[in-house]
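User: Round two. Same drill as before: sequence, then structure, for each protein.

Assistant: Same drill it is. First protein:
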Amino acid sequence: MTSPIQLYKKAYTGLSRNSWYLCLVMLINRSGTMVIPFMTIYCIHQLHFTIIQAGYIMALFGLGSICGAFIGGKLTDKFGFYDLQIFALLSGGILFLILGYQHTFLTVGAGAFVLSFCNESFRPANSSAIAYYSTDENKTRSYSLNRLAVNLGWSVGAALGGFLAAYSYHSLFWVDGCTNILAALMLLKLIPRSHIVKAVKNKTAITDTSSAYKDTVYLVFIGLVILFAGCFFQLFTMQPVFYKTQWLLNERTIGFLMSLNGLLIVFIEMILIHRLEGRRHPLNYISAGVILVGIGFVLLNVMPPNILSGIVAMLFITFGEMFSMPFMNSFWITRTNNNNRGEYAGLYTMAWSTAQVLAPTIGAQLIAHGGFSLLWWIMGVICLVSAIGFGILYRKIVSSS
C-alpha cells in the first residue's frame, strides 16, 4: 500500500522549476487576500451602506473583472504573459491602498471597478504562463499547484484578515496592496524577463477552430461555468454576511470558516487530482463537483446555526470545488494552441468575472425579497441545472467523436 508520504511525492513530482516559482509568487500575492472576503461586511458595518448597495459594490468588482479579463486575454496573445503580470500586480497593489481611503458609495464603486480591471488582467496572463511552463502530461497538476498556492494564501489571508478586521478594516487594504507589490518584485527576481523564449507560431491547429468565440462547445461550456460560478461566488459575498447577521458568528469565526476552504484544498487537492487525472473525462468530475457545491448551500437552510454546521457545509462546498475547478482548467486548455491560449484564458476568466457581477447583485435582491433561505434554495437548484448541463455536454462530445 502506498504511504501518504509517497502519495504526496508522486503528486508533486515532475513539475518544472518555473511552475514552482509561479506558485510562490501566487502564494505571496494571495496571502494578502483580505479585502474581498470582508468587503460586503465592511460596506455594511463600517461604511453604513445598505445590503443592496454592498451588492452593487461587489458587482462593480465583477464588472471591472470582465473588462480586465477581456483586455488581458487580448494583450497576452499580442505581447506575451510576462509584462502583463508585472503591470497587473503593481497597479493592483497601489489601487488597493487608494481604495482603503474611499468612503462614499460613488468613490468606493469607482475604485472597486478600476482595481478589479487591473487585478483581473493578471489572470489570463498567469494562465498562459502556467501552460507555457508545463507539459501535456502535467498541465492539470500545474494548474492545481497554482490553485494550491491561491488557496493556501487564501486560508492565511482570510484567517489573518478576520483578526485584523476585528480591530481595523483599514489595515486589510494595506496588507492586500503590499502583498501585490511584493509578488511583482518576486516575479521579477525569480523569473527574469530575459528567460522568456518567444513561442514559435504553431500553424497546426489543435482544435477545429482558431478562435474561442467560434468554438460552439466551448461557448456552451462557458455558459455553464457562469451558472455555477454565480452560485460559488456566494461563498465570498453573501455567505459571510449570512454568518454574521443570521448565525451571529463573529469575524474571527467567519475568517476560520473561510480559511478552512483553503486549507482543505492545500492538503487534499493535489493528491486527489493525481489519483483522478486521466481516469474519466473532465466533464464527469465537473458535474459531480457542481452537485456537491449545491448540496453545501442547501445545507445552510436545514442545519442549526452553529460553527459545526458551518464546517459541514464548507466541507461539501470545498470538495465540490476540488472536483470541478481543476478539471475546468484542464478542459479549456486542451482546446487551445500557442496562438489563441490568451483568448481562451480571457474568455474563461470573463465567465468567472461575469458571475462575480451577477452573484452579489442577484444574491442581494433575493435576500431583500425572500431572505437568505430563498437564496440558498435557488443556489442549490442552479447548481443542479448546471451539473445536468455539463453531463449533456459530455454526451454531445462523446457522440460526435
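Second protein:
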Amino acid sequence: MAHEAATGRVRQLRLVVEAEDLEAAVAFYRDVLGMPEQESYDGDEGARVVILDAGRATLELSNPAQVRFIDRVETDGGPSDRLRVALEVDDAAAVADDLVDAGADLEASARETPWRSINARLRGPADLQLTLFQELDER
C-alpha cells in the first residue's frame, strides 16, 4: 500500500480551514495537540496562514450507512459532521483529556471500536469535529 501512495498522482492531502481566531486555533492544534508548524505566510490586509504537519494523510470515503454505524460505535448515536477530521494518536484517552483541558468540547469519551481502535470524538477550535483514534493492532 505504501508503494501505491508513493506512485499516485496526488502528492499531499491538505485540509484548509478558515479559523476566525487563528492564534487560538494555532495554539490548540500546534501547541496542545502537537502538530509541528511546517510553513506560515503573511499577506496583504492582515492575511495569514499557518500550515501544520499532520503526518500521513488519507481520504476516507464512507456511505451514509457506514457513517451511521460509526456514529453508533463512537458516540452512542451522536451525528457526524459531513466533514470530520480523524487524527491518529498514541493514547486517545490522554490526548482527549488534554484537548478538553485546552478548551475542546468532548462529544464522546474514548472507547474501543469493533475495528480494534480506541476512538474519542471532540469539537475543537474553528468548529472542527475531531475523532482521535489509537490503533490497537500494528498495521
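The domain at 2-135 is CATH 3.10.180.10 (2,3-Dihydroxybiphenyl 1,2-Dioxygenase; domain 1).

User: Perfect.
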